[in-house]
Amino acid sequence: MASIYLLKPVFQKMLRPVVKLLARAGVTANVVTLTAAALSFTVGACIALWPYATWPMLLLPGFLFLRMALNAIDGMLAREYHQASASGAILNELGDVLSDAVLYLPLALVSVFNAAWMVVIVVLAVITEMAGVVAVQVGSKRRYDGPMGKSDRALVFGVLGLWLGLGGPAGCWIIYLQIAVTVLMVVTIYRRARGALAEAEST
Fold first, then answer.
1. Please, one GO biological process term (predicted)?
2. pLDDT tens column, 48-84
């Protein structure tokens, strides 16, 4: 199934000049990872503190795009500028999971969302990323299968944040959207687990 993640090579090509400038300035991959996590906490805190205001929702689309860029940048710095390390890999994976949690869990406080479904989405987001990581333990590569990986979730909630932030009407369709995201994440977990096992068995 298609995923926004498939566009990553094009995105990386666009970001390469920025990566070169950061490398020359001495910025490390770990600093970029920590910056992304800190900004995620800040945006999530704004949503949690002002759940009835529309302006925090307008932060989501721009920040989620920035976060995708930062995630790509820290990986490029690590691979292309010899900054890869075990601690950096752990920090990157934990940072992604924590960032998802602090960004999306506060949406449970926003009245247009169903709180229970948002909690389910956050839990499944953690499991989805874990399914990608544990693939390495069975002899496979890190899995990024869709259809509802990290980038896909960012697209869905970024567009939704823009819609709501600009005053777009909400309704029961948001709950249906939450259910759809949940179902697609379950499919993603299955595909990542199946893909990991298939790759491990073929080696």
1. phospholipid biosynthetic process
2. 999 999 999 999 999 999 999 999 999 999 999 989 9
How many whole angstroms separate alpha carbon 57 and alpha carbon 104? 11
Which one-letter DSSP state was computed for residue 3? -
Structural domains of the chain in order of their starting residue, each with its CATH number: 4-202 (1.20.120.1760)
- Residues 6 or more apart whose CB falls under 8 angstroms from that of 55 comprise 165
Instruction: Report d(CA 182, CA 171) in Å as an integer.
Output: 18
Closest to 160 measured CA to CA, from 147, 145, 146, 173: 173
Amino acid of residue 30: N
Sequence-distant (6+) residues with CB within 8 A of 22 are 32, 73, 77
User: Which tens digit of pLDDT belongs to each residue from 171-200?
Assistant: 999 999 999 999 999 999 999 999 999 999
H-state helical runs in the chain: 8-24, 29-49, 55-80, 86-104, 115-133, 150-165, 173-202
| pTM of the predicted protein model | 0.93
